[in-house]
Write a structure and sequence with these properties.
Radius of gyration: 33 Å
CATH architecture of the largest domain: Orthogonal Bundle
Helix content: 55-70%
Number of helices: 7
Number of strands: 4
Order of helices and strands: EEHHHHHEEHH
CATH class of the largest domain: Mainly Alpha
Bound molecules: zinc ion
Shape: elongated
Strand content: 5-15%
CATH topology of the largest domain: DNA Binding (I), subunit A
Largest sheet: 2 strands, antiparallel
Structural class: mainly alpha
Length: about 200
């Protein structure tokens, strides 16, 4: 005769093999039947996932800087870069009008910034000039990277400073990060590079 056991949860009388094995009990089986056990585990998981989610949200709220640097790191992984690339491609296909509008806006603000900079250089007595296209070409040529370090270049550096008779022609201009550009001051590019090596 098959052994019968009563489930502690649903109270059904079931054959012993309807209960999971558990060595810690006398009869070597769990108190709950397989079905009840499954249900119980699912509920436990659902209950705890909410708790865990709440904990994660709380942590994120209290550590915004950590989350930011963590995101940055994740976004730099090849997998995420590929994801962004594909996302961008799809976005371009789905919303060509939005993309065009953003680009027009960016170009407009680029050219406004450019003429603002040129005006500033002229005010400082600079000889010569360069076009926005020449500057953008230069940026692309250097991969938008500072010529003195590896940071992103956001500023124009005059290899020979204006104050020492350097011109504002594109030949005298290289992309530099804000930090290098500020520490370079009135040094020439050569002087700055040897100053960096000290
Ligand atoms: Zn049961
Ligand atoms: Zn730099």
């Amino acid at each position: 005769m098959k052994e019968i056991k009563v489930c502690s949860s649903c109270s059904l009388r079931l054959p012993l093999d309807s209960f999971n094995r558990a060595t810690k009990y006398k009869d070597g089986r769990q108190h709950k039947c397989r079905e009840c056990n499954k249900k119980y585990q699912k509920e436990w998981y659902l209950h705890n996932i909410d708790k865990r989610k709440a904990e994660v949200l709380e942590y994120r709220k209290n550590n915004p800087d950590k989350v930011k640097s963590w995101r940055k790191k994740i976004n730099q992984t090849p997998k995420m870069k590929e994801y962004f690339r594909i996302y961008q491609l799809n976005y371009r296909k789905l919303h060509p009008d939005r993309v065009r509008a953003t680009e027009a806006k960016r170009n407009q603000s680029d050219s406004r910034k450019h003429s603002f900079r040129l005006k500033e250089y002229r005010r400082r007595g600079a000889v010569g000039s360069h076009s926005l296209e020449e500057w953008l070409d230069k940026l692309n040529k250097y991969g938008h990277t500072c010529v003195y370090c590896d940071l992103q270049a956001t500023t124009r550096d005059h290899k020979i400073p204006l104050i020492r008779g350097g011109t504002n022609f594109i030949e005298n201009i290289v992309p530099a990060c804000f930090s290098c550009n500020s520490s370079k001051g009135a040094k020439t590019d050569g002087e700055f590079i040897s100053w960096l090596k000290k």
